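Let's practice the habit of predicting before peeking. Look at the sequence and jot down your guess about where helices and strands might fall. Then scroll down.
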Amino acid sequence: MKLGILFSGGKDSTYATFLAKKQGNEIVCLMTIHSENKYSYMFHTPSIKKTKEQARVMNIPLLIGKTKGEKELELIDLERIISKAIKKYKIEGIVTGALHSDYQATRIQKICAKLKIKCINPLWHKNEIEYLNELINNKFKIIIIGVAAYPLDQTYLGRIINKSFIDEVRILKEKYNIHPAGEGGEFESFVLDCPLFSKPLKLKKSKTTGKDHNWRMEIEVE
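Done guessing? Here is the structure:
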């Protein structure tokens, strides 16, 4: 099946791409939405422009859309870019990295139904800890580029998702009800390397902004 990916550059959309390709599908394009609202309900925002570099090392065409990020209205912009992918790349379905977000999943499924294509969610309801371990076992190198929940703070920015990180978020889930995979927006990630990449991306520099338990890191990669 020819598939397009709703791609943010984070671990979820990248791993969903990996699984969809592993299942024998043809990945013909990536779709990224640049939102003016950093608190968008639908779209990942930290370092979103760096998806160009990921698309380059994946050798997959990237479609870029824009939105003001207004709740519900941003879905019009999402439908627009999916329609463009149908026309340009003849996609038969889209892949999302949704884990547990009914808000995102139901709205994307509604758009797909309207456009008469399939909506595929390879990560849907995966056990969070098992999922994080799968990422490591499949040689995904992932860094944290944003946090937005107590007790996460600036010290988490730039951290690699590894066994130590998994042990830590397991404890945070028990103590503070933090979603271990960051599905509630507790943290955002960026993939520097994985089996889909022709070569790893290297972190050149970064700039951090924020306060208290809400921090973001804008990165440069090569």
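How did you do? The first strand starts at residue 2 and ends at 6.
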